[in-house]
C-alpha cells in the first residue's frame, strides 16, 4: 500500500511525525472500490441511515430531515433513511456524500482496513467521501486519528498546513475549538498535492488540512487509524484497583485536609505498585496486541451436487 516507500523508512521518518504523499499508478487501488461498487453499496438502501450517510455542502452539514425519510430498519427500529431522489437533488447542487464505516459493507475496503490493523495493531474505521468540482465538504481541521487517504476516482486538491495539534483525542476539549481557532492554528501552507486514482496521502493525527475536488466527481476513502494511548492504561488500572480494599474506602472527612493528603498519597503509591507489577505489564501487553476490530470472514462450504 505504501510502496515504493519501505516500511522501515515509513516508521522512522513519517509515522506519527509528518505527512507523506505517495504517487501511485491508476490501477493501484482498482480492486478496493470503483464507481459501480459505490453505487452497488449505496443501493443497499436498508443499511443506510442519517447516521451512516451524511451530506455536506460548503463545509456545513445538511440537516437529515432534508434528505431522509422515516423508515424501519432491519432491526425493526424507526430511523431516518436517505431517500435516493433527495440525495440526488443535493448532489446536483454540489453536496458531498459521506459514507461512514464503509468497511462494513465494501469487501475491498474491509480488506485494506484489515491490513492496516494487522500491521499497526490499531483500530481502523473507514469513511468514504464523494465530492464534486469546486465544492468543499469540510473546512480546515485536524483529525484525532492517523489518516491513510486512498484516492479511488477523479482528482482532488489537498492542502496540508504546518500547524498540528499535539496528540488530540476524541474528547470535548478538542471537539469544540471552533473554526476561528482552527483557521489561526493551521498556520502556513506546508504542501499542496493533487490526488488522482492510485495516490495515497498519510497524515499523522492533529495535522491541519482541507481538500477541494478538482474534477467533476471525486471519490476517496480515509482509513482513520486509532492507536492505544496512555489514558487507556488508566482504565486498565481502574479495573485492577477494584480488587484492592484501599481504593474502595470512603475519602476522609471534608474538614480533614491532612488525612485526605495522606490517603491520596497511599492511593498514588499503590497505583504505582500495581502498574509496575509483572501481572499488570503482562495485561498491558495483551491489551496492546489485541487492539483491533474483529474482521471475521465467512467461508461457508460449497454444497456438493446431490447424487442420484
Describe the structure.
- The chain is an alpha+beta fold and 308 residues long.
- Helices cover 32% and strands 26% of the residues.
- The chain has helices spanning 7-14, 35-42, 84-92, 107-120, 172-175, 179-185, 230-241, 245-248, 257-276, 278-289; strands at 20-22, 53-57, 60-61, 68-72, 78-82, 96-99, 123-132, 146-153, 156-164, 189-195, 200-203, 207-213, 217-226.
- The mean pLDDT is 91.
What attributes characterize this protein structure?
308 residues, alpha+beta, eight-stranded antiparallel sheet, three-stranded antiparallel sheet, globular
Query: How much is the average pLDDT?
Result: 91
Number of strands: 13
Shape: globular
Described by strand count, sense and barrel closure, the largest sheet is:
8 strands, antiparallel
Question: Unreliable runs, pLDDT <50, ≥5 residues?
Answer: none
Measured as a percent range, the helix fraction is 25-40%
What structural class is derived from the secondary structure elements? alpha+beta
Short summary of the structure?
By secondary structure, this protein is of the alpha+beta class. Helices cover 32% and strands 26% of the residues.
Secondary structure elements and pairings:
Blueprint: H1 7-14, E1 20-22, H2 35-42, E2 53-57, E3 60-61, E4 68-72, E5 78-82, H3 84-92, E6 96-99, H4 107-120, E7 123-132, E8 146-153, E9 156-164, H5 172-175, H6 179-185, E10 189-195, E11 200-203, E12 207-213, E13 217-226, H7 230-241, H8 245-248, H9 257-276, H10 278-289
Antiparallel strand pairs: 1-11, 2-3, 2-6, 4-5, 6-7, 7-13, 8-11, 8-13, 9-10, 9-12
Amino acid at each position: 500500500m505504501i510502496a515504493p516507500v519501505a516500511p522501515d523508512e515509513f516508521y522512522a521518518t513519517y509515522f506519527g511525525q509528518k505527512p507523506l504523499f505517495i504517487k501511485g499508478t491508476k490501477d493501484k487501488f482498482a480492486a478496493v472500490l470503483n464507481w459501480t461498487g459505490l453505487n452497488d453499496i449505496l443501493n443497499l438502501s436498508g443499511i443506510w441511515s442519517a447516521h451512516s450517510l451524511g451530506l455536506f455542502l460548503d463545509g456545513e452539514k445538511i440537516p437529515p430531515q432534508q434528505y431522509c425519510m422515516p423508515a424501519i430498519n432491519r432491526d425493526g427500529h424507526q430511523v431516518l433513511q436517505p431517500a435516493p431522489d433527495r440525495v440526488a437533488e443535493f448532489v446536483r447542487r454540489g453536496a458531498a456524500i459521506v459514507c461512514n464505516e464503509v468497511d462494513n459493507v465494501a469487501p475491498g475496503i474491509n480488506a485494506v482496513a484489515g491490513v492496516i490493523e494487522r500491521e499497526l495493531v490499531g483500530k481502523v474505521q473507514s469513511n468514504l467521501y464523494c465530492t464534486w468540482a469546486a465544492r468543499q465538504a469540510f473546512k480546515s481541521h485536524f483529525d484525532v486519528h492517523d489518516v491513510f487517504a486512498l484516492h479511488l476516482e477523479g482528482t482532488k486538491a489537498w492542502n496540508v498546513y504546518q500547524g498540528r495539534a499535539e496528540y488530540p483525542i476524541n474528547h470535548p476539549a478538542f471537539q469544540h475549538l471552533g473554526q476561528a481557532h482552527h483557521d489561526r492554528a493551521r498556520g502556513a501552507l506546508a504542501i499542496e498535492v493533487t490526488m488522482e486514482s492510485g495516490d495515497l496521502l498519510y497524515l499523522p493525527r492533529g495535522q491541519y488540512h482541507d481538500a477541494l475536488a478538482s474534477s467533476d466527481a471525486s471519490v476517496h476513502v480515509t482509513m482513520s487509524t486509532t492507536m492505544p494511548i496512555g489514558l487507556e492504561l488508566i482504565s486498565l488500572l481502574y479495573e485492577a484497583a477494584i480488587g484492592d480494599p484501599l481504593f474502595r474506602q470512603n475519602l476522609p472527612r471534608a474538614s480533614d485536609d491532612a488525612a485526605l493528603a495522606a490517603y491520596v498519597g497511599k492511593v498514588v503509591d499503590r497505583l504505582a505498585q500495581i502498574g509496575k507489577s509483572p501481572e499488570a505489564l503482562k495485561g498491558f501487553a495483551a491489551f496492546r496486541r489485541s487492539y483491533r476490530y474483529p474482521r471475521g470472514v465467512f467461508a461457508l462450504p460449497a454444497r456438493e451436487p446431490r447424487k442420484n
